[in-house]
Amino acid sequence: MNTTRHRVPSSHNDNHSSVAAVASAVDKPPSSGTIRRAIVFLLLISFSCFVFYRSVRSSSSSSSILSRIFPSFDSFQSLEIEEPSLEDVLRRAATKDNTVILTTLNEAWAAPGSVLDLFFESFGIGEGTSKLLEHLVIIALDAKAYSRCRELHKHCFSLETVGVDFSGEAYFMTRSYLKMMWRRIDFLRSVLELGYSFVFTDADVMWFRNPFSRFYKYGDFQIACDHYLGRSNDLENRPNGGFSYVRSNNRTILFYKYWYGSRIKYAGYHDQDVLNFIKKDPYITHIGLRIRFLNTAYFGGLCEPSKDLNLVCTMHANCCFGMDSKLHDLRIMLQDWRDFMSLPFRLKHSSGFTWKVPQNCSLDSLRRYDWIDEEESEPPRGTEQ
Ligand SMILES: *[C@@H]1O[C@H](CO)[C@@H](O)[C@H](O)[C@H]1NC(C)=O
Ligand SMILES: *[C@@H]1O[C@H](CO)[C@@H](O)[C@H](O)[C@H]1NC(C)=O
């Protein structure tokens, strides 16, 4: 221990916050050197380093000095300041076969007691679903949604779009609703390009069972339906973009580009409508995309509930307008599930237990807002939350 014999520099008060002072102190010749002096010296060194570190951190221009001394300083600093990249977030959340579960979230849905809380609750009371949260990435569309995500969840990604405010309740078919939906399609394309397959789920889809065993082995693009006609490859099925399973490959990447590009040809339409327009296009056959529609027996919703609770995987609060109605019916749906789960095994299969929803949600409540500017028609923010 050489340093224990070094002498305390007499000038330490003047420049204890510079590297030179520390260096020259170390160079001073050893003196008689009592243990007590050595301890004082060590304390001073620690203090100097502390002060030095603080002063460097408060002036960015000298951070290069620190990174020359501690080569890992830069990476340490950038980790602390910069948000993780999409690639990092996906990698951390992905399953072994590079699959993630994605949902998008805005301020209105993130608020305490709102949709996000019910979404998490479903994972908690579902059968074998809580472990799936490990693979869920929440894509926050505004700052409030992002900070709420950070409070509650491990994997959050901020996708703020400059000049667009997605934070309010997005009314069906208003202009900001359309922008939000199309932003989502473009974003999902970028996830596929990074090599990740995904289950996309709206946060108003309740997860009651692990859905992976119900996906088709050979489908590239699999999507839930408002109405399911009975055959998984029947293009007349009415898809709902609130729940889909998409494998990352060249066909799906081309398909998402084509879908996103088609918003120009079908200006003013919802991504789901455009999907219905393009699903029979020769281009889709040309790229060889295998589309599969998911049976509402497993992937139901308020439009067409999964009849048998022994089979249901997910239930979507589709066919619903207005936040109050949606939350009302989602809460009843969760209670229905709890009631079902508390039945004895035999009764689960013989009692003919069914959902008590829809109640306040119904197709009739789905007021149309087509082609109307939200600036003219939307009630003030907060009235419907
Ligand atoms: C796309 O196709 C090319 C050439 O056939 C192949 O090398 C590449 O791995 C494919 N990419 C994906 C994501 O499947
Ligand atoms: C649900 O509907 C009932 C009956 O129409 C109504 O009294 C109640 O206020 C509604 N609740 C919500 C949250 O919309």
From TrEMBL:
<dbReference type="GO" id="GO:0000139">
    <property type="term" value="C:Golgi membrane"/>
</dbReference>
<keyword id="KW-0735">Signal-anchor</keyword>
<feature type="domain" description="Nucleotide-diphospho-sugar transferase">
    <location>
        <begin position="132"/>
        <end position="330"/>
    </location>
</feature>
<feature type="transmembrane region" description="Helical">
    <location>
        <begin position="38"/>
        <end position="56"/>
    </location>
</feature>
<dbReference type="InterPro" id="IPR005069">
    <property type="entry name" value="Nucl-diP-sugar_transferase"/>
</dbReference>
<keyword id="KW-0333">Golgi apparatus</keyword>
<keyword id="KW-0808">Transferase</keyword>
<dbReference type="InterPro" id="IPR044821">
    <property type="entry name" value="At1g28695/At4g15970-like"/>
</dbReference>
<dbReference type="GO" id="GO:0016757">
    <property type="term" value="F:glycosyltransferase activity"/>
</dbReference>
<protein>
    <recommendedName>
        <fullName>Glycosyltransferase</fullName>
        <ecNumber>2.4.2.-</ecNumber>
    </recommendedName>
</protein>
<keyword id="KW-0328">Glycosyltransferase</keyword>
<keyword id="KW-0961">Cell wall biogenesis/degradation</keyword>
<dbReference type="GO" id="GO:0071555">
    <property type="term" value="P:cell wall organization"/>
</dbReference>
<dbReference type="InterPro" id="IPR029044">
    <property type="entry name" value="Nucleotide-diphossugar_trans"/>
</dbReference>
<comment type="similarity">
    <text>Belongs to the glycosyltransferase 77 family.</text>
</comment>
<dbReference type="Pfam" id="PF03407">
    <property type="entry name" value="Nucleotid_trans"/>
</dbReference>
<keyword id="KW-1133">Transmembrane helix</keyword>
<keyword id="KW-0812">Transmembrane</keyword>
<keyword id="KW-0472">Membrane</keyword>
